User: Fold Zinc transporter from Pseudomonas segetis.
Amino acid sequence: MSEQDSQQWGLVHAYVLDGKGGGRPVSYDELADLVLAERESLWVHWDRSHPQTQNWLRKESGLNEFVCDLLLEENTRPRFLQLPESKILLFLRGVNLNPGAVPEDMVSLRIFAAAKRAISLRLRHLRAVEDLLVDLRAGKGPKTSSELILALADHMTDKIESLVSDFAEGIDEQEEQIDNDPSFEPDHDTLLQMRRRAAGLRRFLAPQREVYAQLTRNQQPWFVADDADYWNELNNRLTRYIEELDLTRERVGLVLEAEDRRLDVKMNRIMYRFGIITGVFLPMSFLTGLLGINVGGIPGSENPYGFLIACAIMVVLAVVQWFLFRRLRWV
Assistant:
């Protein structure tokens, strides 16, 4: 059966590891014998949305109902579960790099692992799996089941690093433009979206970091001797990325606060100027309004120079106000 025929059964990839960094692909028809024999390290990668995947897991994989239920449940978050006989369950999250997708809408990868078996399930395409296949075909991939799950986690963490770096570069660009041009107005929508995306990504990275920490502490008998060191390194890398995300959110907040302060200062300056102008013209408006009352007895109404005298009074009043404002340091 060809690989295309296997995918019709929900099987995305199946490889037998050769113990030297490579592996040979196997078809759906070969799985039953390989699962029962458990003589070679087998990796089976399934499409969780395919109906045949559930059928194979429950009837042919040899896994009990409890494990199958966990692997097939709809909503999960990163977690580590120790099973009897030194078997483990891993639920990890990877960056969604599919076309048209939002990267922080992370893809779930569920993994059952034992000494000679690794069964993984995904709902959407995961770039980390493709990178692992490239390593296997080049003879530079994992040699055992423990190295396989470690390699998957490592590739997933690499993709997270790229996304975190994009966030940092985005805020760096905004801050640099503000420093170079004080009149530059940052894009509020872009900054708010960046903060939301960083918060969404951190939501999954924090529990995933704890998964790596648990794998560092819970060394399985079938793990390679230095696996704990590599899991600890992944834990440290995720810790650094989480700190970068926290810093990014804080920097976005500072940029928005600085922009709000700048707008407040600008608005206050405008309102201050309006207040000064109003203060200058308010007495004049009162005077002209008083003289404009259409009743008898208005001073200067019969004087041919009355208008000029009124204008001169207002000019003198404006000059007096100007010197008064200067003395009070209002202008």
Observations:
- The chain has a mean pLDDT of 85.
- Residues 132 and 268 are 59 Å apart (CA to CA).
- The chain has two domains: 3-262, 272-327.
